[in-house]
């Protein structure tokens, strides 16, 4: 096999442990307080300020450098097009993918908060793809209610159109909103996106590709949040047990009947949903997209991120 000039096997990626990655923070200041961080961390997640310092601050620095580089690339195209196109800031789009219950939403929120502290790109918006799940009525009509989270359960064209409009500089673009409470799209409520500097799109399947253009084609940077399947399964079940006294306790929750389940019953119910929906989706659709990610954040069983893989080519 051909080797690089240092005698190593060629690779698209560089793998770093937490200490090596942490050193790439350089002089980035800590800009979050304990209280701010607490408000960003989701149920069952365990991010602390050390992890922000070691993992998220270097990441914020890397993305900041890449935002500037991307603008130079767009400027090159504008120079080429001359009068055919006026030069402008194009929103930088980040995709965040990974399994159900791996902690994507927390990663997305922490990153959004850090990126918004940069003077050159203070306006950061975050959209989750659950808003683009087809409404329950339509999922039922198609007989795919049990496939929620699988690629076919989304309005993929709508998602592509949405990100295209944001990148095109539209003054205001709307995204539909999903409710975990009603387990359906919320009628008449929209998320308004008004010319952000950075847009983060978080969801299970955002890194999927296909024969036609897909939202992944519009990403300037992508992150895959990764962990062992056995660990994610444990996190899913333990979060489900916790939800009996939080989300499910609300009488309006679609899952309210689960609130009364014993530990054993709730564990069985969570395992059933995991093995019939979330695990197959992870294996068939989500995991195969991991090689495509610019960055993989690898979590250990205690949720801590201890390894990072960066695409360098
Ligand atoms: N049934 C539910 N009721 C209320 N909130 C939920 C429910 N399922 C998931 N969530 C919340 O929705 C968010 C996304 O969860 P999920 O899709 O599992 O992705 P991740 O854990 O990777 O962020 C999390 O903040 C989670 O706590
Ligand atoms: C809403 C989800 C499909 C995730 O949506 P995403 O924002 O990742 O597109 C997922 O959290 C979900 O509810 N899955 C269905 C099976 C379950 O209840 O675990």
TrEMBL record:
Q: Which residues bind ATP?
A: 98-105
Record's protein name: Pantothenate kinase
Q: So what family is this one in?
A: Belongs to the prokaryotic pantothenate kinase family.
Molecular function GO labels: ATP binding; pantothenate kinase activity
The entry's keywords: ATP-binding, Coenzyme A biosynthesis, Cytoplasm, Kinase, Nucleotide-binding, Transferase
Q: Which HAMAP family match?
A: Pantothen_kinase_1 (MF_00215)
Which leading EC class covers this enzyme? transferase
Residue ranges constituting the Phosphoribulokinase/uridine kinase domain according to the UniProt record: 93-229
The entry's localization annotation reads: Cytoplasm
* Taxonomic path: Bacteria, Bacillati, Actinomycetota, Actinomycetes, Mycobacteriales
Name the species this protein comes from.
Gordonia asplenii
- Xref: Gene3D superfamilies: P-loop containing nucleotide triphosphate hydrolases
